[in-house]
Amino acid sequence: MQIMDIILIVTITISDGQGDLINYVERVL
């Protein structure tokens, strides 16, 4: 996985503030 992908996901997670995206990031990492 590319670093840019992680940055984009984290940015979207922070802007949306949704738990689903946070769980997705944790699974990917």
Counting DSSP E segments of at least 2 residues, the number of strands comes to 0
Dominant shape: flat
- Average the pLDDT over all residues and give the rounded result: 76
Q: Which percent band covers the strand fraction?
A: under 5%
How many domain units?
A: 1
Q: Are there runs of 5+ residues with pLDDT below 50, and where? A: none
Specify the biggest β-sheet: none
Overview of this protein structure:
The longest helix is centred in the first third of the chain and has 14 residues, at 3-16. With 29 residues, the chain is mostly helical. The protein has one domain. The chain starts with a helix and ends with a helix. The chain has helices at residues 3-16, 19-28. It is flat and about 20 Å long. The protein contains two helices and no strands. It is 83% helix and 0% strand.
